[in-house]
Amino acid sequence: MPSAASLQSTLVVAAAAPAEAQSLRLGGLTPLTTIDFPGRLAAVVYCQGCPWRCGYCHNPELLDATAPPALPWERALAFLQSRRGLLDGVVFSGGEPTLQAALPAALAEVRALGLQTALHTGGMYPGRLAALLAQLDWVGLDIKALPQRYDAITATPGSGARAWDALEVLLAHGTDHECRTTWHAGLFGVDELLDLARTLAARGVRRWALQECRTPGAPAWALTDAHRQQLAALFPSFALRRA
Prior knowledge:
Blueprint: H1 4-22, E1 26-33, E2 42-47, H2 73-82, E3 89-94, H3 103-112, E4 116-121, H4 126-132, E5 138-142, H5 150-154, H6 159-173, E6 177-183, H7 190-203, E7 207-212, H8 225-232, E8 237-241
Parallel strand pairs: 2-3, 3-4, 4-5, 5-6, 6-7, 7-8
Antiparallel strand pairs: 1-2
Helix pairs in contact: 1-3, 4-6
C-alpha cells in the first residue's frame, strides 16, 4: 500500500500538470481544418516563439517568444472541450511548439479529452521531439534543405544537423508523419532539390510534400513536368502544393 508521502507526491504531480499546461503561449487558433492533420477533422493551435529566422516564414508574428500570449491555454482547452465528438484531433503548430516546456502537459490534456494529437515542427530540438513522440499520432516535419544549406536559410548556425537528427529520430520511432519542403529556385537550384529528394528517399522517407514558396522577389516556379515526375517516382506518397 503506498505511503502517505508517496500519495502526497502523486497528488502534487497531478495538481501541477494543469498549471504547467496553462503556461503554454498561444498566438491563435483555427477552429477547423481538413488539411493539417491527414484524414482527420482537426483544430490548430499556434504556439508562440521560434529560434530560427527563415526569410520566407509564413507566420512571422509568432516568432517572438516573449510576446504576451494572444490566447490563454484555458480558453483554447475550453473550446476543444466544447468540440468533443465533432473534432478528431488537434494540431500544435507555430512558431515552433517544441520551444515551450509546457507542450507535453498540453498534449496530455488534449489526449485526456479523447482527441488525437499532431505536431508541426522544424526539428530544431531532436531530443525534445523524441520525448514527445509517444504522445503524438502524426508529425509534419519541415526539412528545408540538405544540411549544408540550413545556416543560410534559418540564419542559425548548426540548424541543419538538428533538423536531420530530428528526421532520424522520427524515422526510428515509426510515428506516422510527412516531411515537407518549402522551396523556390532562389534558395537552391533544381538539381540540388532533386538531390534532396533522393537523400530523403534513401533515408526511408515515404511521404514528402514540396510546397511552393512565394515571397517578394522570389523567382518564378522552375519545375518542369519532367522534374515533377522524377520527384514523384521517389516516394510512395508525393504531393506538390502550389501557392
